Amino acid sequence: MTTPPLRKRLGAELLGTFWLVFAGCGTAIFASSFITPSGLTAPSSQLGVGLLGVSLAFGLSVVTMAYAVGHVSGGHFNPAVSIGLWAAQRFDNVRDLGAYIVAQLIGAFLAGAVLWGLAKSVSGSAGVTGALAANGYGEHSPGGFTLVAVLLVEVLLTAFFVFVILGVTTAHAPTGFAPLAIGLTLTLIHLISIPIDNTSVNPARSLGVAFFNGNGAPGQVWLFIVAPIVGAVLAGWSFEAITGIDRSNLDVGGAVNPGEVLTEAPPTTPSSPTSPTSSTPSTRVEPEA
Q: 3-class DSSP state for residue 34?
């Protein structure tokens, strides 16, 4: 197995993070509560997916992209996950770590911009403010939870999330099921914490919509950067001590068969005229039977 070129891995991270933010936040914005207009023969009805549907949307976005491009980049799609893997010595290249985070943030901001444009096309600029599924605490928490409560929840849930990722990417876990376990964990995390703070555990997800959302979200987004990173580092540092499993020799950074990596052909050089000293004919060596 070989690691794909960095530009391929960054493209996979950008695409995966875009899909996570677009699918997850998009479901929360447009489909969590959807009421059909009443007609002459039928009253209006509620067709929204609710909390369960939004939770599944975030989980399924990770499952689908992990299967689609996880083999290319490792399927992080989250700066906290990348930092947690680095803390666990499962992603050692600091240059690649920084590049992954930049790609994830770009993907999240692009998704946020698309969601903002879609919402604005229906509700106008005023209607978009405060309606883009941003994370928050205090008066911006769906359930009115305090800063301390939200901080604790984000650290705790991110730590468990990264701990699961570290566990299911070892040789002890069933092969091929890591994306399902990770996606289901993210679904469970959202079921727990959407009422608390709209669920982050991902700084890119929070930053991707905060500045388009406005309404206090930009001023509170620092918590959803700091808390997930703290939780991820705690999980990375404690995983080996708790489980006794040391996989520091195996990075979660993408691995494909060498034959699947497209490489550029070396440039051809014009053949030089045959010189008197190079007149020995070439010999074809037949393989031994």
A: coil
> Does position 250 have pLDDT exceeding 80, yes or no?
no
Half-sphere exposure of 247 (CA within 13 A, CB side): 21
CATH class of 6-246: mainly alpha
The total of other beta-carbon atoms located within 10 Å of residue 64's CB is: 16
The fraction of the chain above a pLDDT of 90, given in percent, is 72
What are the domain boundaries of the chain?
6-246
d(CA 217, CA 121): 21
Tokens of 62: 């990770």
If you write DSSP's letter for every residue of 158-212 in order, what string do you get?
A: HHHHHHHHHHHTSTTSPTT-HHHHHHHHHHHHHHHHHHHHS--S-HHHHHHHHHH
The alpha carbon of 75 is separated from its chain's Cα centroid by a whole number of angstroms, namely 7
Q: Is 101 helix (H, G, I), strand (E, B) or coil?
A: helix
Task: Specify the length of the chain in residues.
Answer: 289
Q: Is 280 left (phi over 0), alpha (psi -120 to 50) or beta?
A: beta
Amino acid at 35: I
Residue 150 near residue 197 (C-beta atoms within 8 A): yes
Other Cβ atoms less than 10 A from the Cβ of 270: the count is 4
Residue 36's φ and ψ, nearest 5 degrees, are -75, 145
What is the H or E stretch that residue 220 is in?
A: helix 217-220
CA distance 187 to 190: 5
pLDDT tens-digit series, residues 201-233: 999 999 999 999 999 999 999 999 999 999 999
Q: Which residues contact 248 (CB under 8 A, 6 or more apart)?
A: 88, 89, 90, 92, 240
The tens digit of pLDDT for each residue in 252-265 reads 777 666 655 555 45
DSSP tag of 36: E
Q: What is the pLDDT of residue 246?
A: 80
Q: Which helix (H) or strand (E) holds 35?
A: strand 35-36
Structure tokens at 36: 């059909």
